[in-house]
Each structure stands twice: as C-alpha cells, then as structure tokens.
Amino acid sequence: MDEMLLRVLKAIEGNPGSDADGLAKSSSIDRGTIISSINALESDKYVHFRTEAEYSVEPSKEGLSYKDGFPEEELVEKVKSHGGEIAISSIKDQIGLIWAKKNGWIEISEGKARLKKEAHTGEYAQRKVFNALISGSGKAHLTNTIRSNPDVVKLLESRKLLTINRAERIEDISLTDAGKEAISKWSGGSGEIAELTRDIITKRAWTDKKFRKYDINAVVDGIYPARAHPVMEFIDIVRNTWMRMGFTEVEGPIVESAFWNFDALFVPQDHPTRDMQDTFFLSNPESIEIEDRELMGRISAMHRKGWQMQWKEKLATQAVLKTQSTAATIRHVRKIASALKEGETARFFSVGKTFRNESIDYKHLAEFYQVDGMVIGDGVNLANLIHVISEFYARLGFVMGKDIHIRPSYFPFVEPGMEVYYTPEDGSKIELLGSGVIRKEISKAMGTNKRILAWGGGIDRLLLKGLKIESITELYRNSMEWLRNRNEIEL
C-alpha cells in the first residue's frame, strides 16, 4: 500500500467518526491529500463515510439594503397611497416595478400601474427567506431554510441579492474490517502507489509497484481555472463580429476635447448633455488645444449658421471624459475622408469605455462600454444602415421584430435618425443604440461629399439577455463566487 494512504488509514484509526478537516488537523496532512486519499481508500472498501452538503451565504450590498423592505413591496404601498394607481413616469425604482408585475401585484396599461386584487398582503416570502438566510442562526437552520424554500432561494440568487455557496463535506469517516486488516498487512510498506512523493521517486520505489487508477467519481475540492470577465469576453465577441462583417477597428482617447466629443458632432454648445449633470469635466488638464485650425473654422461656421448662435472656442477646448465613442469614429472620418476616391467605401467601428454622470439603476451606469461604427460611401442609404444593424444583432442572437425593434428618433448629428431598443420578457423597452445618416453639414466640414451612416450604443445592456441577468450592475459586483460560476454568454 502507498505510504500516504497508510498514514491516512492510521489517522482514521486514531480518530474514528472524524471529518476531513479534523483528520487534516490531527495528522498534519493537508486537506486536499486527505480528501483524495479517503476517496482512494473508499474505492477499495477500506473506509466508509458519508457526504453532507454544507452551505454558506454571501449577501450582496443590494440585498442587505432590502432587509426591511423589498422595492416591490414599497411600490405596492406607494400605489395604495395613491388610490390604487400611479403614473409609470413617477416610478423611479424600475426594479420594484418589474418584480411587482412579475408577482402579479400590479398591471400596466395606458402609462399607469394599477393594483390587482391579488396585490401583496402579509409577509413577503422573498424577504422572509432572505432574512432567515442571513440571520446567522447556525448551519442547521441555514440548511433547513434552503431545503424548505428551493424556489424562493433560486429567485433570490437570480436577482443577485445573495450567493449560496455549496460544498460537499466528508463526515463520519471510519475503517471497515478490510481497512483494519490493511493497516496490519501493509505496515511494512508495499503495494500500489496512489500519490508520488519525493522519496518514492529518488529511491525508485515505483519500479516494482503498480500505480492506482484514477477514480473520476471521487469527491474533490472545486477547481476554478482562470476565465475572462464577462464584459471583456463579450467585447471580444462584439469586436470579432464586426470584423467578420468586413469592418476595421479604430481607436480614440478616453480623455477628449469637447470639440471632438460635441462640437464636431453638431451638438450645440448650450445643449443640456454638455452640462455638469451629464458630463464629467476635468480639472487636470482643464483644456485641450484644437490643432486642426482649418477644421475648427468649418465647425464654428457650421454651428453659427445651423444654430444661429455664437460659437466659443473656450467651450470647445474643455477637457472631458468621453461620453460617446462616436468621437473616435468621427476623428477617423476626418483622417480618411479626403483620400477616398469615387466609388470607394470605408467601414470601421470603435469599442471603448465611455462616461456619463448618470444615476445608477438596472440599465444605467456612470461608466460603460460602447460600440460605434460608420460606413462612408457614394450610394449608401438608410436601408443599408438598417441591414447592417440587423445583421450585427442577428449574429449576437437577437431577432429583429421580436427581441429588438427600430423606431424613428432624434439625435443632433444625424438626419434622419433611428433608435434600436430591446424588449425583454417583462415588456419594458431598453434602448440599445442610436443611429442615422450623418448630417451633410458635418460631412462637408470633415472634407467629404460622400454619405456617412453612423450608429452607437452600449454593450453592457446586451448582456441582460446574454447572461440572463436582471441588472447591468451585476456585471461589476466583483463577487468571486459569481465570476467563477456565472452563466456562459448565450448568443
């Protein structure tokens, strides 16, 4: 018998009924070796043991904020206080609205949320189970709560309000009669080798012995290989999708001038999105010089004529954190536009982090990733734009007319403009992308008479479907347990 297996057998003999942790402590053998040895010994019927599921709970910050009341409960109380109905526009907490509708407590029609007869009364099961799980009342209480409420626990996990960690614990380990005989028989040291040691290798003790076969059904500790963060993994998917469609990737800086971020895209200098409420302005550097003076002259003339107002260079040189990656693609237009010959077409895209001073909720973050793209050509039109966008989303698993829809919209730098939105199962509408035909004033300012098709939208929101999550905030919780056990991205 292998020397290590014999040591473990003797440790079990001296500690009958112990568990793996107890044996590791009493024998000074590491836990991993104890577990692998016990599995090997059990396969030869030298020992027997039982396994017990052991649970631990890791509540999220969001979950802890719900201890005294879930948002759907608070919404119902608010609707009750308004006579049983309330305008959707007045509801700030979209999570509460989603779950109140899922629970069948409210119905939505004509822009209002109305209480149903089955509206929530009494103690809410989700809050009751959540508080029971985090109460710290002991392992037995935790196990009983999980086993008694499997559906509610699954809901709480799907909402990322907590994470249930499950491990198989080896307990009540004892020798069989064969194990007792083995200790006596093999104390002299011979037989199969289950684990190579330094002594076995250097003394060549393996030359006259057999190696034990692997038991693929043995209970072992979890192994978590390195894997990419889901956002980085998805960015690679998006990048490869555009490249397979024949597009070239371009890049731009994160710290940008207001000139490229706003002015070059025909956003008026008094537009609300340029206020502190929407844009992060830098104090160091406070401004960025515009080196292309010829272009700046064209842009200023375009603003004065188009918006009938004074244009100030000081506002254009303000340093900002990029609010849209269109700043990168419009820079590339300026770089290549004059070199494009008649009949030539250029297709390119940009993926990058953008920043907006947003209030955080299930579909808004202050920093997020965005993909933008443009097509420059003589005969391109709105139909081409719709085709390109539809093809991109189709390759990501979205069905046009079912998962995603297109409707007219307004953006200062395109005419006409379109918006693409996603419709999840709850019936809400989540904007994914803005698009359109770049205004002629901008195209001419950039040095071309060719038509430019443009689009730009967030990447993070696409993962609501790809990872089957309720909120994009889940992507950045940085829970190791979630990152290890998250769903694969489904396209």
Can you put this structure into words, describing what you see?
The chain has helices at 3-14, 20-27, 31-43, 61-64, 71-81, 94-102, 125-133, 139-148, 150-158, 177-186, 198-202, 230-244, 258-261, 293-307, 313-316, 326-336, 382-395, 440-445, 463-466, 480-485; strands at residues 47-59, 85-87, 106-109, 112-115, 162-175, 248-249, 255-257, 319-321, 346-355, 367-377, 404-409, 414-422, 430-438, 451-458. The chain is α+β, with helices and mostly antiparallel strands and 491 residues long. The protein has a 7-stranded mixed beta sheet, sandwiched between helices. A hairpin with a 7-residue loop joins β12 (414-422) and β13 (430-438). The longest helix is centred in the middle third of the chain and has 15 residues, at 230-244. The relative contact order is 0.11.
